[in-house]
Amino acid sequence: MEIIDGGGNKFLMCNNKYLSAVVEEQKVLMEKHGDRVDHDVLAEMDVLYRCIKEALRLHPPLIMLLRSSHSDFSVTTREGKEYDIPKGHIVATSPAFANRLPHIFKDPDTYDPDRFAVGREEDKAAGAFSYISFGGGRHGCLGEPFAHLQIKAIWTHLLRNFELELVSPFPEIDWNAMVVGVKGEVMVRYKRRVLSANQ
């Protein structure tokens, strides 16, 4: 059987290394907690969290973030060029561009969830705003923790109940919408199964 997906699982489905790692993480958690899935169990899903975060780094949901300057300030680039930002001006940034800066993220166009692993943490190496898929500062998205929790809960159900295989080509990104999506459809083949800690 096949299902059509909006594209949220495409990176994981294209990478057997990480798909196997998140399935293994589910087995370990099932051995520890049984079939129980609650907030505490979801919070232990570090591998799945890093996979989701990396997908959002590569394809953040918003094209642009806008802020109004509340006072005059200056910005100095890495190259030493200085820009004066007057009070009242609109400042814009593109998460899709910022999340792929090569001086922050090694091989920025490569899907590599391990870049967020303890000891590497590329998103923290250059400061608090190196990763801005959900914005940042006082206006960072308050829904970010809930979004990750929700996505982990959905993936947990899928991983524990289905074998999944991407059967369509990797989709193109549609930058024409306010919330970024994919052009066309993503086809996923699935087979019903019940994952157990002993498999």
Protein described:
- It comes from Lotus japonicus (Lotus corniculatus var. japonicus).
- This is Cytochrome P450.
- Keywords: Heme, Iron, Metal-binding, Monooxygenase, Oxidoreductase.
- Its cofactor is heme.
- GO terms for molecular function: heme binding; iron ion binding; monooxygenase activity; oxidoreductase activity, acting on paired donors, with incorporation or reduction of molecular oxygen.
- The model is unreliable at 1-8 (pLDDT under 50).
- The chain is an alpha+beta fold and 199 residues long.
- A hairpin with a 5-residue loop joins strand 3 (73-76) and strand 4.
- It is elongated.
- It contains seven helices and nine strands.
- The longest helix has 18 residues, at 16-33.
- The two termini are 23 Å apart.
- The strands form four sheets. The protein has a three-stranded antiparallel sheet with strand order 1-9-6. A two-stranded antiparallel sheet has the order 2-5. The protein has a two-stranded antiparallel ribbon with strand order 3-4.
- It has a domain at 2-61 and 109-121 and 134-192.
- The protein has helices spanning 10-13, 16-33, 39-43, 46-58, 95-98, 122-125, 144-161, and strands at residues 2-5, 65-68, 73-76, 82-85, 90-93, 162-166, 173-174, 181-182, 186-192.
